[in-house]
Amino acid sequence: MTPMEGFLGLGSNKGDRAAALKAGLCRLEGLGVRILVVSSVLETEPVGCEEQDLFLNQVARVRFDGSPEELLARTQEVERLAGRVRSRRNEPRPLDIDLLLFPGHERSDSPPILPHPRMWRRRFVLVPLAELAPDLRNPLTGRTILEELEGLLEGEVRPYNPGLRVEERSGQ
């Protein structure tokens, strides 16, 4: 089987968020997912359920020798090992890993749907993806990641600075 190369989105807003992202990447590698490069970590507002803590998000370019279904199963295992329990949509989570975009493996008929159907409306996905692959094109529109970001207003993103205290961030 030809290796799949593409992008995963990682997020955490419960517990030690930075440690969860780092451990998630390490566990993915332990399960045969080769991490090629990772974006900067961003701190972002929650989308879909605002009464939550802020997220840390990043994108990883990966290579995997298997099918999209196998990769999805491995990412869900890593989420489970991080303590994620799926009880309702958009709940706080120690780790969330989404299959974003795997050129040449587009599919809309069964999970995982590729590219991820909501990624094009999410700054917390497109900003770190643009850091890694600004000229990558949306296979649905032909537009580059940077072009997809133009005019996209949803969700504030900012560089994560672990040394900054919450009061300093909010200006208090």
Brief write-up:
The protein is built from 5 helices and 6 strands, in the order E-H-E-E-E-H-E-H-H-E-H. It has helices spanning 17-30, 68-81, 123-132, 145-149, 166-170, and strands at residues 4-12, 33-38, 42-44, 55-64, 96-101, 157-159. Strands 1, 2, 3, 4, 5 and 6 form a 6-stranded antiparallel sheet that branches.
Number of domains: 1
Gap between N and C termini = 55 Å
Kindly state the mean pLDDT as a whole number? 88
- Class derived from helix and strand content: alpha+beta
Q: Uncertain spans, ≥5 residues at pLDDT below 50?
A: 165-172
Order of helices and strands: EHEEEHEHHEH
Helix content: 25-40%
The CATH homologous superfamily corresponds to: 7,8-Dihydro-6-hydroxymethylpterin-pyrophosphokinase HPPK
Please name the CATH architecture.
2-Layer Sandwich
| CA radius of gyration | 16 Å
**Main beta sheet, described?**
6 strands, antiparallel
CATH topology: Alpha-Beta Plaits
β-strand number: 6
Approximate strand percentage: 15-25%
Question: For the record, what CATH class applies?
Answer: Alpha Beta
Instruction: Categorize the overall geometry.
Output: globular
Count of alpha/pi helices: 5
EC number: 2.7.6.3
Keywords: ATP-binding, Folate biosynthesis, Kinase, Nucleotide-binding, Transferase
Family: Belongs to the HPPK family.
Pfam families: HPPK
Secondary-structure topology with pairs:
Elements: E1 4-12, H1 17-30, E2 33-38, E3 42-44, E4 55-64, H2 68-81, E5 96-101, H3 123-132, H4 145-149, E6 157-159, H5 166-170
Antiparallel strand pairs: 1-4, 1-5, 2-4, 3-4, 3-6
